[in-house]
Design a protein that fits this description.
The complex is a heterodimer of chains A (336) and B (569).
Chain A lengths: L1 H28 L14 H10 L6 H25 L20 H36 L4 H15 L2 H15 L16 H38 L2 H8 L4 H29 L3 H7 L4 H10 L3 H29 L7
Helix pairs in contact in A: 1-12, 4-5, 4-7, 4-9, 5-7, 6-7, 6-10, 7-9, 9-12, 10-11, 11-12
Chain B lengths: L1 H17 L12 E6 L8 H4 L2 H7 L7 E3 L5 E3 L19 E5 L14 H12 L14 E5 L5 E6 L20 H4 L11 H5 L7 E7 L3 E6 L13 E6 L3 H9 L6 E2 L6 H8 L4 E16 L26 H9 L3 H8 L4 E3 L16 H4 L4 H10 L3 E2 L5 E3 L2 E2 L1 E7 L2 H15 L4 E7 L1 H4 L17 E6 L7 H4 L25 H12 L3 H17 L3 E14 L2 E2 L17 E2 L2
Parallel strand pairs in B: 1-9, 1-10, 16-17, 16-18
Antiparallel strand pairs in B: 2-3, 4-6, 5-6, 7-8, 8-9, 10-19, 11-18, 11-19, 12-19, 13-14, 14-15, 20-21
Helix pairs in contact in B: 7-8, 9-12, 10-13, 16-17
Classes of the chains: A mainly alpha (336), B alpha+beta (569).
Chain lengths: 336, 569
């Protein structure tokens, strides 16, 4: 298992380099321009100067090498400096700078990460917690009323896009009932009970929207996987031996059914980091998804490049984790 | 309903008095919550140029003088506006002198001097800095300080309209002490200065979260000790226009929201909640249709839409251009897409009032299908079996492009229908705004390259003087491969008589004569069908009924008088 993991990790390096080049090339080929959003009253020669000050007048390949150097050498050194207090060289390194804000991209990401983890991460956790019992009961009582309703809701939750459920919840709970705020206050600091409740209140709507979506997806998986196992021979054997129905279901069937579900859950973790782009935008949660969409709209290429690349790293990494987990959970699978 | 009306009347009356009546004490009105649906990226307008950045920074850093809501200059950091009469502007129009108010202080308590103005000019003209507002300092030869309270600007050539450098929200003064080490290529590296500039305005930045939210606190050293009434300001960004409108008009979570680009009927429903109202300000924005005077035929290859490619087979005929203008019903376009945020117009310079012409309103503002049809018949454009007019092998069938935007697509549909009534066929196309306005010379889809017969966009000019704007339709401003497709004359209009009049305007200093010349130039463009002005666009913002003192401004930052805003008790 260890050599397998090591081999996969080494293999990931060329994969990621190719990915980074493809992203860079795609962004460069896209006919977007960072001055495209500026008022037309800014004359063309000034736009040309702005582009030059962003380094856009340099050849494509040189810009890619600069980015590689900034991202793989300068930024890690910078993080190391900050963590340890040591200084490497004179400490003035060119960092990856966002074109719109002219500030280091990594600082922006660090600033945004907590909100995304809180809102999207929590929604993912809730989604899993809701999905597993629904999936189990639906499968155990297949075609019962509970199953019909559960399948219907997960079908709806899976098919209705979040930009619809999000706005719907705002109209009902913010505009009509006025229970929850429609705008996420990112300046809120949790210091006491009342600010904690305020934080909870503003998280209710975005978390519910995302939980519904996540739960629907996972519940369908749990149900299908449970159904597969319920009709296996070992279940009949267990029952014939007089094992209690509760332990048949929760010990034998559930454990076996969760193996593919764990893989699906692990593969879904990178989406937590990439944020729920649409939901964050609707509720104005200043997470990574919102950062990405603003950067794309404003043709802020260094920011888009860096964010997309980090997502690519996470996806490669969690694919590996899912594979390794699979091996650990299922003794029948051996990689070496 | 009656109650609501009474309430509105009451608010209007209260607003009218707010300026002069006894004002609330400094910092007694709590937190002012502002919502911009496009989040602010930086607080340094010299590094961004975007409207949202200019507006947000206008609460902190100030120019020497601003435009008020009528488009008139008001002194901010100076004692008076320099003119030839008061001796502030030299008779030869080669220099001007601003007198700073005495005892001005930056928010950090240090003295504000003429040196800061000199530095601001140096900052913006530094090479490799990519200063987005460089146009404001164009033609400035030097900025000097004869004494610490006097700023003298010398121009390279006589400037009949000298109010540009240090005037308006786009060219505020930044502090020398703070930005001294951030000149030229070093500018982007000064993140903390760019995110929290020290200013002279009513508020100062407390915390800046890029592309998200800014918190401000009242400036303790503000020149009027009784202002601002609000202790803090929260400026939240992101989302979309409709939900921003909802947060002010329906849920009441925010006091003020900027740029309500929302369908008129949606806004009307939200207004019924009775929590807020809309404010509209008209600047100089005009949505217009450009008619390509050159041939954009793809068969021409590199010569497409250039002089070498020859004149447009149909649109070079003045009768066709006039007929296209006559066939448009601007009122329907305004009603469907703009509501309170638009007025039908036939002028490319629609404001300020003293330069807005009314000469062509009589024939152009009213749709006249019959006259348009007759004009085309007389000019020999005959309808074919498909109902489309043609003459000598040229068909009145046009490609009509614009940027992707629901209002623009709706307008395209309406215009297509109106033109079909005079036997003109149109193929509609929309292009992503960041490409269309991106100006990339390699892209075939920019509005400057104009590889289409007809295109639609909005443009405007900053400030109140249209000279530079009108100079955009000079023959040598036509975008060509030689100038990298840069140039304001996208419609490719070229008339020596027009060029001569623009040259005359640039030498005229007398305000009355300048107004007449500007109007004549504007009329020439409309009469000759260089382009078709459609809608004079205003900006619409919404604010809570409890917010007082808002004087919506189309000439400067909307937040220009935020120091005077207060909350109704």
């Amino acid at each position: 298992m260890f050599t397998y993991t090591l081999r996969r990790l080494l293999f990931a390096i060329p994969t990621l380099l190719i990915i980074s080049f493809v992203i860079f090339a795609l962004l460069d080929l896209a006919p977007n321009d960072p001055t495209g959003d500026l008022p037309l009253t800014i004359p063309p020669e000034v736009r040309e100067q702005i582009r030059a000050s962003l380094g856009l007048d340099q050849p494509f390949f040189l810009r890619y090498l600069y980015w590689l150097q900034q991202f793989f050498i300068n930024e890690p050194l910078n993080i190391l400096e900050r963590l340890t207090g040591w200084q490497f060289g004179d400490g003035t390194r060119m960092r990856v700078l966002s074109w719109a804000t002219r500030s280091p991209v990594v600082d922006l990401i660090v600033q945004r990460l907590p909100q995304t983890l809180w809102v999207v991460g929590l929604a993912y956790l809730f989604g899993i917690l809701i999905a597993i019992p629904i999936g189990v009961i639906s499968a155990y009582r297949q075609y019962s009323i509970f199953d019909q309703i559960g399948t219907f809701i997960s079908m709806v939750g899976y098919s209705v896009p979040t930009f619809f459920t999000g706005v719907l919840l705002i109209v009902i709970f913010s505009s009509w009932l006025q229970w929850f705020p429609s705008v996420y206050d990112t300046n809120l600091q949790v210091t006491d009970m009342s600010s904690f409740f305020a934080q909870m209140r503003q998280m209710v709507l975005p978390v519910s929207v995302l939980s519904l979506y996540n739960a629907s997806q996972i519940a369908r998986f749990v149900r299908a996987s449970m159904l597969d196992n319920l009709h296996q021979d070992y279940v009949r054997t267990a029952r014939a031996k007089g094992v209690k129905e509760k332990s048949v279901l929760l010990v034998h069937v559930l454990r076996n059914s969760l193996i593919p579900v764990v893989t699906v859950i692990a593969l879904g973790v990178p989406t937590i980091f990439s944020g729920a782009i649409i939901t964050e935008q609707i509720f104005r949660v200043n997470g990574l998804g919102q950062l990405l969409i603003v950067a794309i709209q404003g043709a802020d290429i260094p920011l888009v490049q860096t964010l997309t690349f980090i997502f690519a790293v996470l996806i490669v990494l969690f694919n590996l984790i899912a594979d390794v987990l699979y091996g650990i959970l299922d003794p029948r699978i051996r990689y070496d | 309903m009656k109650k609501l009306k009474l309430l509105l009347v009451g608010t209007a009356a209260a607003l009218a008095f707010a300026g002069s009546a006894a004002h609330a004490q400094k910092g007694t009105d709590g937190d002012l919550k502002i919502l911009f649906w496009q989040a602010v990226s930086t607080m340094n307008p010299y590094l961004s140029g975007g409207t949202k950045e200019v507006y947000a920074s206008s609460m902190v850093i100030e120019p020497l003088a601003r435009y008020d809501e009528k488009g008139e200059l008001v002194p901010m950091l100076v004692t008076e506006i320099p003119t030839i009469e008061n001796g502030g502007v030299a008779k030869d129009l080669l220099s001007m002198t601003w007198k700073l108010k005495p005892d001005l202080k930056w928010a950090d308590g240090t003295a504000f001097t003429a040196d800061d103005a000199i530095f601001t000019w140096q900052y913006c003209k530094a090479p490799d800095g990519g200063c987005a507002q460089a146009a404001y300092y164009e033609g400035v030869k030097s900025v000097e300080a004869p004494d610490p309270h006097t700023v003298k600007i010398t121009f390279t050539e006589p400037k009949p309209y000298p109010y540009s450098a240090f005037v308006g929200a786009q060219s505020p003064i930044i502090q020398k002490k703070q930005f001294e080490k951030c000149v030229g290529a070093a500018a982007p590296g000064c993140t903390s200065a760019n995110f929290g500039p020290i200013g002279t305005g009513p508020f100062m930045v407390k915390e800046f979260k890029p592309n998200d939210v800014i918190t401000f606190t009242a400036n303790p050293n503000y020149r009027d000790p009784a202002k601002p009434a609000f202790a803090t300001v929260t400026l939240k960004g992101g989302g979309d226009a409709a939900s921003a409108a909802r947060a002010v008009l329906e849920t009441g979570e925010y006091d003020y929201a900027w740029n309500m680009q929302v369908e008129p009927e949606v806004l009307a429903t939200m207004l019924k909640a009775g929590k807020g109202k809309l404010e509209t300000a008209f600047g100089t924005q005009v949505e217009r249709i450009n008619l390509n005077h050159f041939n954009p035929d793809p068969k021409l290859g590199d010569k497409r839409a250039t002089k070498e490619g020859g004149p447009h087979p149909a649109l070079s005929d003045p009768a066709v251009r006039r007929a296209l203008t006559l066939a448009i019903d601007r009122d329907i376009i305004v009603e469907a897409g703009y509501g309170a945020a638009g007025k039908a117009t036939c002028n490319i310079v629609p404001a300020p009032a003293n330069v807005a012409s009314t000469k062509n309103d009589s024939w152009c503002l009213k749709q006249d299908i019959a006259a348009a049809n007759k004009l085309l018949d007389d000019a020999g454009w005959k309808k074919g079996s498909d109902g489309i007019r043609a003459k000598d092998g040229a068909k009145l069938s046009f490609l009509y492009q614009t940027s992707t935007n629901s209002v623009r697509q709706a307008t395209q549909e309406l215009v297509k229908d109106m033109w079909s009534q005079i036997g003109v066929a149109t193929e509609l196309r929309n292009i992503s705004a960041s490409v269309y306005f991106g100006g990339d010379p390699a892209s075939p889809d920019t509005f400057q390259k104009f590889y289409a017969d007809i295109e639609m966009l909005t443009n405007n000019f900053d400030g109140t003087d249209p000279e530079k704007y009108l100079a955009g339709w000079l023959c040598d401003k036509i975008p060509t491969p030689a100038n990298g497709w840069q140039g304001e004359n996208e419609t490719r209009y070229c008339n020596p008589a027009y060029d001569k009049k623009v040259a005359e305007l640039s030498k005229t200093a007398d305000p009355a004569k300048r107004e007449t010349l500007s109007k004549e130039l504007n009329d020439m463009l409309t009469e000759e069908g260089a382009l078709i002005p459609l809608v004079h666009r205003g900006s619409v913002s919404s604010h809570s009924l409890a917010l007082e003192g808002v004087r919506m401004n189309g000439w400067d930052s909307e937040l220009w008088n935020v120091a005077d805003w207060s909350r109704k008790k």
